[in-house]
Amino acid sequence: MGRSSCCSREKLKKGAWSAAEDKVLRDYIRVHGEGKWGKVPKKAGLNRCPRSCRLRWLNYLRPDIKRGNISDEEEDLIIRLHNLLGNRWSLIAGRLPGRTDNEIKNYWNTVLKKKLQAQPAASTATTVMHSDRDGDATLKNEKEAEASTQCSQDGAASRHQQSGRSVQNVHCNRFNSSPAAVGDLHSDGSSMAAEECDLFDILKGLDTEELCSRYLLELDFFQLLGSTVPQDTRDWCGGGGGGGGGGGDSYVFFDDRLLLEGAISDTWIGGEHI
DNA sequence: AACTCAAACAACCGCCGGTCA
DNA sequence: ATGACCGGCGGTTGTTTGAGT
User: Fold this and answer.
1) Could you report the per-residue pLDDT of A108-132, keeping only the tens digit for each?
2) Is pTM beyond 0.70 here?
3) What b/e string do you get for A166-192 counting C-beta neighbours within 10 Å, with b at 16 or more?
4) A19 touches strand B (CB under 7 A)
5) What domains lie within chain A, and their CATH numbers?
6) Angle at the Cα of A175 (from A237 to A149), degrees rounded to 5?
7) Partner of A228 at 20 to 30 A CA spacing, among A35, A57, A103, A156?
């Protein structure tokens, strides 16, 4: 824990990679394959720390990486996945072939966050939900943005609390910019229904086993929700607490209806789970 | 042409969980 | 059982680039 940076520790080179370094690393991995990053710098003859090599490869040199111009479809998907998963960039990136978590994270922080904040409808919807909780009905956009930032920071902090990290993430997204953002994708005012469809589409495409096991079951999702979720729903989700997917056509039942339903929301958001 | 400023991107940092000696 | 190491994740920072004046 708290180890110092390997680069500074060993006086290794930091900063931008040169074309020559890239070539060395690319050649080395072509021959030896990925992994064993600890040995890569030495064996390849690079004056870089292993983590730097790994990052460079994963975010830049990998042959399957698609660079630049994020399409509208990709952007749309990022927004919806972010709404669903929160700042789980690696997972979001997993749904976007050729995109890295770093790229998506950057894109979100520099482009999408501002876009979503700039949309008044999003702010309104979000503010309403916020004010219900905070008792501050005059929440302004700026404040909300701040809260959103704070929230993601909290989400990060919660990562370090062994339990409930994903709860925090999901919670944050539900009550900040993202839900309204999804709504904005369907400007006909029936964002809820549209959102349900969108989320469902996404969920159908997701690796539900991974999603279940990594987020829902890991959280003991249904324990969190308590007895408010009917047994057939639990079954539909592939066992709900039964230990790790495996159910062939099962869908993850992670629907806004669940979360917005009063009793469940209370259970979900209630202090004991956060 | 020179300067400023914001956006975009690359890279680093701190931390965690898993693995292995 | 334990401590060191490794791989991975998400947040943040630093640098580069491009538009505007």
Assistant:
1) 888 887 777 666 544 433 333 333 3
2) no
3) bbbbbbbbbbbbbbbbbbbeeeeeebe
4) no
5) 6-61 (1.10.10.60), 68-198 (no CATH), 207-274 (no CATH)
6) 120
7) A156
